[in-house]
Design a protein that fits this description.
This protein has 25 helices and 25 strands. The protein is α/β, with parallel strands linked by helices and 1073 residues long. The longest helix has 99 residues. This is Structural maintenance of chromosomes protein 5.
């Protein structure tokens, strides 16, 4: 680099752990602003506790600003400061999503201050960032303001940090080539087009959307209108048929109204004829009744004589009934006394039978006593069986003791068996619980990785195909000791390895992959364990030396896994050398990174990766938040499972042993029970022999006592017979008195019966006379009865006809809608009734005919006519709406044509200018490139886009710039030249490009650099920031350039001791020597 050729204005940025920057003279800054800055250019950037900076100020120039520095020194931090200081979103930078992450680690807050050139007075924007709540406070010209006010102020200066055509940070360089043609057009419009161009474009897209909507609406309404007309045309015939049917129904209704009036008139005339016949029959009935009167008076006279006699006969009958009742009572008393005598004699007979029975029992008992005494004498010669009984008792006692002992042992065995069963069930339940947890992990595997789960099922069914150990996916065999630590393992081991199968032998893995990947087409991962086990490999340093930093364990100690799986993880991911820390570790993380010097560490909620810079040997760390665990939270203790399985086998053996012993005891008890029964039978037989003599003696004694008792109970039959005779005599005396009363009542009854006979004879004579008179009267009244029946029938007929007339009148009034009490036919119905038949038969015939005709019109209803009329109204409304929509569509098309002319012509001119500049740049590099406005349909304004086509070799054709066709360096060159083509056209005050030259080859990088210097340092160009970690030698520079050198290191001078001029003098002296 030739220092004397460069412009004297060189700005250096120096940083150390405290602060460093060059001091800027206010007077110099003012002159430069007046000389070259455009509206909205950046004059000053001040950073405090921001990313790598404690405190630093940057003073860029008005043209091209080249920011140079080694990786990790803080070049991109300046880009972040520009973006966030001008109210940009963190998503633009592609780094952390929280603004608090941009504050220097260990600080509670940081700030960015940017001074923008403005002709009316510079604008100073200050943003202070709080780490604790991830919030920001804003100031405009040292006065508090809202973020929205800052965004409005930035927008007024045409600054768009979210537009990749203006602001291209390092992490977004690759995304520029990924932008679609449509996105590139919008970004270009916003960046270099007139302010109204993008608004016109949006307006056009909105108009086109509404035009499409209106076209669809008009088309739909026209189709619907045509269908409605066709449908109504089809329904027109139905409506005509409906009105024809209605005329028939109206005639039917009028016939039904007249019919009750005709019926009423017919019934009324019939009732008048019946009334005349009834009056004539009434007069005839009256004359017949007068001719029967003398016979009736004679019958009444006989009835007056007969009535007292019948009354006396009733009284006689009552008195006879009373005398008969008294005779019956006396007869019952005699029967009772006879029964009483019979009972007395029965008692005597019982006493006699009892005495005879006593004598018989005494004789029988005496015989039994003699026989027992004889048998007792014969038993005196039998031997004594007591010793045999005692011997049997002793053996029975021994057997009982043995049975008690066996029963006690059986109870103990049952208790042991119950306990063993309880333990067995407990172990089974616990093992089942562990298996359920394993099943949950398998369900997660099946839901997330279906192919891996299918391969797992095949492995379990075909394990005999493999010679060495084959382990299921690591997420199933890894068992985290505490669920809260699962997040460390899942963050450290990639997901592809967590679902990988682990093999001990290479040939087993190849056999497995041939089956599941080649034959079954399953996507699975496999790994092979190291030949030499690494599972016991010690960490690089003892854990005790790290505990003071808050580390409590290495990652390997947080989980269990099979030998080969642990060996693979230690070999591949160094789980034996990754420490796990706590919140204490996070609070002192800078000290930990500096002193511990481990490549990877974990705190309570974060993962830290530590690297050393290849340029400066500085330590660079990055951190990321730990995600919650998904697969390893369900922990299964493998040792516990193995112990449970062994305990289950032991418990099963114990239960079987107890069952065998219980079976032996039951067999032994059966033998003892059989021997016990034999001895008890023998004892019973001996006891019977021994007790027989004693029983005989007891029986003899008992019989003698019974005999004495029977002899004492002797009955005195003589005394009892005398007492019985006395009782019978007393009862007979009472019977004589009763018989005398009975005879007296019988005499009274006979006398009354004779008197009743006399009265009956008198009644029979009078009754015969009455019968003769009634017979004579009956012959004369037959005609009278017939007359009465005829009169009653006529009267009933007249009443029925009257009721019928009233009913028919009510019916006629109701059908004709007349008021109650009105009996004349309304005038409006007279004309209609006069055209209809007057007889019922004719009316019924006409009704049947009209109903038959009406029934021919089927499937018709009022809804058909209502629908027809409603649709007619809808057709009129739709025709009006269609006219309105068609007029609106015409208006929109006229507006679109006007807006298109306002937008498309300037846009084509703008794209032509960009194409001209872009093509010139490529021609200067012996390549070819062009930019054009591309659209498949001129009317689809949301499909318009800018197409970039490039050619880097003469043997190829122009190809569209895509993320896949060109190389990374070619995409970088194309992106840079497109941005430079916008430079002269740009209405934005500055442009930022970060490390876009990293993928270029030296030739293209030199050519692009020359174009950048030539373009960015031209007349009437805006400010340009070009960030790069390195530059080629012997490049061509311009006087208008400003070079910002970013230095970073522990031995930097403090800002107040830095002297730029002294630094340049020393550099020149060193160059001359």
């Amino acid at each position: 680099m030739d220092l004397p050729q460069k412009r004297k204005r060189i700005s250096h940025e120096l940083t150390n752990s405290q602060a460093s920057n060059r001091e800027a003279a206010p007077s110099t800054s003012t002159n430069v602003q007046a000389g070259g800055f455009v509206e909205g250019s950046i004059i000053r950037i001040t950073m405090r506790n921001f990313l790598t900076y404690d405190h630093s100020e940057v003073f860029p120039g008005p043209k091209l600003n080249m920011i140079v520095g080694a990786n990790g020194t803080g070049k991109s931090s300046i880009v972040c400061a520009i973006c966030l200081g001008l109210a940009g979103k963190t998503s633009v930078l592609g780094r952390g999503d929280k603004v608090g992450l941009y504050v220097k680690r260990g600080c509670s807050k940081g700030s960015v201050e940017i001074e923008l050139y403005r002709a009316s007075g510079n604008l100073i924007i200050t943003r202070e960032i709080q780490v604790e709540n991830n919030q920001s406070s804003w100031m405009l010209n040292k006065k508090h303001a809202s973020q929205k006010a800052v965004e409005e102020a930035v927008k007024e200066l045409h600054i768009q940090v979210g537009n990749l055509c203006q602001f291209l940070p390092q992490e977004k360089v690759g995304e520029f080539a990924k932008m679609s043609k449509i996105e590139l057009l919008e970004a270009t419009e916003k960046s270099v087009g007139p302010p109204e161009m993008y608004a016109f474009h949006c307006e056009l897209k909105t108009f086109r959307t509404k035009e499409r909507d209106l076209e669809n609406v008009c088309k739909e309404k026209a189709n619907f209108l045509e269908k409605a007309k066709q449908r109504n045309e089809r329904n027109k015939l139905d409506v005509e048929r409906y009105y024809m049917k209605k005329r028939h129904l109206d005639r039917i209704q009028m016939l039904e109204k007249k019919k009750p009036w005709v019926e009423y008139e017919t019934a009324r005339k019939e009732m008048e004829g019946v009334k005349k016949e009834r009056e004539e029959m009434k007069r005839k009935l009256r004359s017949l009744k007068e001719a029967q009167e003398p016979l009736v008076r004679k019958i009444r006279s006989v009835e007056s004589q007969l009535q007292p006699i019948e009354q006396q006969m009733k009284e006689m009958t009552a008195r006879i009934r009373e005398a008969t009742q008294k005779c019956k009572q006396k007869h019952d008393q005699l029967e009772y006394r006879n029964k009483e005598v019979e009972d007395i004699r029965q008692d005597l007979s019982l006493k006699q039978t009892e005495e005879a029975d006593r004598q018989k029992r005494i004789g029988h008992t005496q015989l039994m006593i003699k026989d027992l005494q004889k048998e007792l004498q014969n038993m005196g010669t039998m031997e004594d069986v007591t010793p045999q009984i005692e011997a049997v008792n002793a053996e029975l006692k021994n057997i009982q003791q043995e049975k008690d002992k066996l029963e006690s042992e059986m109870m103990d065995l049952r208790r042991y068996k119950d306990e063993a069963f309880g333990e067995f069930n407990r172990l089974q339940n616990r093992l089942r619980s562990l298996e359920d947890m394993m099943r949950v992990k398998e369900d997660k595997l099946r839901g997330r990785f279906r192919d891996t789960y299918t391969a797992l099922m095949w492995l379990r069914n075909n394990r005999d195909h493999f010679e060495g150990n084959v382990y299921e996916p690591m997420m199933l065999v890894i068992n985290v000791r505490e669920a809260r630590h699962a997040k460390y393992i899942e963050s450290h081991i990639p997901l592809n390895d967590l679902r990988a199968f682990v093999f001990q032998r290479q040939e087993d893995m190849e056999r497995f992959m041939t089956e599941v990947r080649d034959k079954q087409r399953l996507r699975v991962n496999t790994v092979i364990a190291p030949a030499e086990s690494c599972s016991k490999r010690p960490p690089s340093r003892p854990l005790e030396t790290l505990q003071r930093y808050g580390f409590f364990s290495y990652l390997r100690e947080l989980f269990d896994a099979p030998e080969e799986v642990m060996s693979y993880l230690c070999h591949q991911y160094k789980v034996n050398d990754v420490p796990i820390g706590t919140e204490k570790t996070k609070n002192m993380i800078e000290m930990v990174i500096r002193e511990v010097q481990l490549r990877m560490i974990y705190t309570a909620e974060e993962k830290y990766t530590v690297k050393k810079s290849n340029y400066s040997n500085n330590v660079v760390s990055s951190n990321s938040a730990l995600r919650p665990s998904q697969f390893l939270t369900d922990t299964i203790d493998a040792d516990e499972k193995r112990q449970l399985e062994e305990q289950l086998k032991a418990a099963d053996r114990q239960v079987k042993s107890i069952d065998q012993r219980m079976a032996a005891i039951l067999e032994q008890q059966g033998k003892l029970d059989r021997r016990d029964n034999e001895l008890r039978a023998k004892k019973k037989k001996l006891s019977e022999l021994k007790g027989k003599k004693r029983q005989l003696e007891q029986k003899i004694s008992t019989k003698q006592d019974s005999l004495r008792q029977m002899e004492r109970n002797e009955i005195n039959l003589g005394a009892i017979e005398e007492e019985t005779n006395a009782k019978i005599a007393a009862v007979n005396k009472k019977k004589v008195a009763i018989m005398e009363e009975y005879l007296s009542h019988m005499q009274v009854k006979a006398k009354l019966s004779m008197e009743k006979v006399y009265l009956a004879l008198q009644s029979a004579g009078l009754s015969a006379e009455k019968t003769k008179l009634e017979t004579d009267c009956r012959d004369g009244s037959a005609e009278l009865k017939r007359a009465e029946v005829a009169y009653t029938k006529l009267d009933q007929t007249k009443n029925n006809l009257l009721a019928t007339c009233k009913t028919l009148m009510s019916k006629a009034i109701q059908i004709c809608n007349m008021t109650p009490g009105e009996t004349a036919v309304p005038e409006e119905l007279h004309a209609a009734f006069s055209q209809l038949p007057d007889t019922l038969d004719e009316i019924d015939a006409m009704l049947n005919e009209e109903k038959t005709r009406a029934e021919c019109f089927t499937g018709l209803s009022d809804a058909v006519v209502d629908e027809y009329n409603r649709r007619e109204q809808e057709i009129q409304n739709m025709e009006k709406e269609l006219d309105d929509k068609t007029n609106a569509l015409t208006t929109y098309r006229r507006n679109i044509a006007e807006a298109k002319e306002r937008w498309l012509n300037p846009l084509k001119q703008l794209v032509d200018q960009i194409n001209e500049r872009f093509s010139d740049f490529f021609r200067s590099m012996q390549c070819a490139g062009e930019v054009d406005l591309h659209s498949e349909n001129e009317e689809e304004y949301d499909k318009y886009g800018i197409r970039i086509r490039v050619k880097f070799r003469s043997s190829t054709q122009l190809h569209e710039l895509t993320p896949h066709h060109q190389s990374g360096g070619e995409r970088s060159v194309s992106t840079m030249l497109y941005l430079m083509a916008l430079q002269d056209l740009n209405r934005c005050p500055f442009r930022v490009v970060d490390e876009i030259n990293q993928g270029m080859d030296p030739v293209n990088e030199r050519r692009v650099f020359d174009i950048v210097v030539r373009t960015a340092c031209g007349v009437n160009t805006s400010q340009y920031f070009f960030i790069t970690p390195k530059l080629l030698q012997n490049l061509t520079y311009a006087e208008q350039m400003t070079i910002l050198c970013v230095h970073n290191g522990p031995y930097m001078l403090p800002p107040n001791k830095w002297n730029e001029k002294a630094f340049i003098r020393r550099a020149r002296r060193k160059q001359t020597h």
